[in-house]
Amino acid sequence: MGESILECTVLNILRKPGDRVGLDDSILEVATDKVDTEVPCPYNGILVEWLVKENDIVEIGSPVAKIQVQADGVADAGITGKDALVEIIEEEKAAIIIEKELAENVLTQTPDKITYHELGDASTFYSPLVLSIARQENISPQELSSITGTGADNRVTKNDMLAYLKNRNIPASGQQVKTQSVSGQTEIFEMDRMRKMISQRMTESRKISAHVTSFIETDMTPVVNWREAVKQEYRKKSGDSITFTPILIEAVAKAIRDYPLINISVEGDKIIKKKDINIGMAVALPDGNLIVPVIHQADQYDLPALARKVNELAKRARENKLKPDDLAGGTYSVSNIGAFANLMGTPIIVQPQVAIMAFGAIKKKPAVIETPQGDLIGIRSMMFISHSYDHRVVDGSLGGLFLKRVNDYLENFDTRRTLI
Q1: Has 391 been annotated as catalytic?
Q2: Within this chain, do residues 53 and 171 fall inside the same structural domain, yes or no?
Q3: Residue 2: inside a domain, yes or no?
Q4: Which domain holds residue 326?
Q5: Into which EC class is this enzyme placed (predicted)?
Q6: Beta strands of 337-402 (E only): which ranges?
Q7: Which residue among 16, 104, 133, 223 has its CA within the 20 to 30 Å range from the CA of 356?
Q8: Cα(332)–Cα(25) distance, integer angstroms
Q9: Does position 284 have pLDDT exceeding 50, yes or no?
Q10: Kind of pairing, strands 179-182 and 186-189?
């Protein structure tokens, strides 16, 4: 799930005890602070017992189920042969009884003055997660019963609820929240799950790393002029746009090769130097949250391939189609805050990395141009770069030299390059 992920939430259990499961069959859906994903089965066999239930928060690496495999028995259960088959049948019967009892109990509760027994058919099963969403969004029992389910036996799933809510009521912010008015002048609403996790991660990072930020002003005129000259032809031939982001990431990847001690992490009193250069790029999502997909081995891409990769990851991030691998293994991160017209900022390090770079808005301004004939004043496209680094292991010399090297790669950009 990625080295920075410590726990996940069980969203949906996709298979029942007694089901025959195959290698890589999806058996469980979980959510982290970064992505929702399905968990594949690691064996061929029969699912004997679930050790978790929906809505449980589970530590990464802990067992979640017991599976009967051909000759190895059931892990930690000591069940083999005929006894295992009897156990499986009994488990399945018990699961059916428990499921019906859970449905009857949950559907007759009256949380937040919403009573679900009015649905009439007590055999209709709604998972705790679906009921939790219904309570949070003030969906009445009658309204809940009208939602079409796409799950097994036509059950309503989390995705069915989210799709229904998207069409039911979309606030101006694009974020589904439960609000409360106080004296008509203030409004209180709950953070969504991703915002809570972002809040936790950012607070932890400030506590872990001794943040220092350095700045430099970079002359982006060669890059701006080159991009202006090639962007229409690139769009015509590729059907996509060429943004500044792949150019910036390319400069960072080259600078990391020159200064590999920026590509490290800290574990206790040990420094771990990473050989792969995996650059995370911050992407703003439509709901206002932030996610950081990773370009693995970014230094191995040429600029056209890097442009395609950046566009692909950004698109999938905004469509909520990222896989766990897309978010794992980052060794350094960048944020293009210039996309929001910000001149500069002091970004917070993504743990367990030790540095992050933010690129500000590119603005035309008068600047001194040094020539063999003397200094001149001209209009140049200038950009501030902010470099935050962990002063526990990155001193000002390394942090500053690395920043200067990124600056040099951008200012000396080869304008004779082609993209197609």
Answers
A1: yes
A2: no
A3: no
A4: 198-411
A5: transferase
A6: 355-359, 363-371, 374-390
A7: 223
A8: 33
A9: yes
A10: antiparallel
